[in-house]
Amino acid sequence: MKESVERGIRAAQIAMLVNAILAITKLTAGILGHTYVLVADAVESTADIFASSVVWGSLRIASRDPDEDYPFGYGKAEPLAAAIVSLMILVAAVGIAIPAVREIRAPSQSPAPWTLIVLVVVVVAKFLLSRRVHTVGAEIGSTAVKSDAWHHMSDAVTSAAAFIGISIAVVGGKGWESADDWAALFASAIIAYNGFNMLRPTLHDLMDRAPGPEILEPVRRAALSVEGVRDTEKLAVRKSGLGYRVTIHVQADPALRLDDAHVLSGKVKGAIKAAVPQVQHVLIHMEPYETGRRKEEGGRR
């Protein structure tokens, strides 16, 4: 888990450095090249820097061990950061759309052709950065890191739209000066769409929604594979930080001694953690297995 946290933090640090360079480049090119969409793009990259810093801090907090004040750990800091990043994307979309509409209504001079070269470099850099950060996020199971990756991808989309808009303005000449502003408006809609899509899984994690069968079924099979386990009943799994917390009811021989039941529960816990390494904590409730009751319940079903 510590290694996963460090990988996530390194990804956030690299993203911050790249975004700082790109933000300065785009702002300078936007002002000198008379193109608002590049200035808006620079604002997006600046927001990316803050988003990556939020992810960095959340991973540090989420990796802390439980204590008396937070007996279930600090894992919720990670999806909370992802939600903040998602909301930042939505705010950035609105921030880009409003000035774009203003520029469309009162277009200024045509953008400089050389700004297209800047945008090509930006699109390639942001696309590669997004792919890299998303790969890290998927490998360590971090919602916040994956949200940060989508933030970078939205920046690449904005830059691609800017390239199209500026190209139209340059080729079209007089009367087409607002083409890059329309591109900025279109990009803001795409960014807002991505922001909503990113916000949904983070809310699921904050609300303790159960994971999919790819987590639940291996946990159940691992418990049933332990010798002495007759059956399992209730199974509740929720995500906490980069891992999962499991609560499961295990049924065993009613004649089992208390100390033997304790040993059996330990074996079940070990089997679950071995089968699903993402599981950080397992709470097992031992129950007596009653054949008659199981048959009656099976008949009612």
Entry summary:
By secondary structure, the chain is mostly helical. It is built from 9 helices and 3 strands.
Q: Which consecutive residue ranges, at least 5 long each, have pLDDT under 50?
A: none
Strand-pairing-aware structural class: mainly alpha
β-sheet strand percentage: 5-15%
- By CATH, the architecture of the largest domain is named Up-down Bundle
Q: Quick one: CATH class of the largest domain?
A: Mainly Alpha
How many domains is the backbone divided into? 2
Q: Characterize the largest beta sheet: strand count, sense, and whether it forms a barrel.
A: 3 strands, mixed
Mean pLDDT: 82
Note the total helix count: 9
C-alpha end-to-end distance: 41 Å
What percent of the residues sit in helical stretches (DSSP H or I)? over 70%
| Relevant CATH superfamily of the largest domain | Cation efflux protein transmembrane domain
Radius of gyration (Å): 26 Å
Q: Might you state the CATH topology name of the largest domain?
A: Alpha-lytic protease prodomain-like
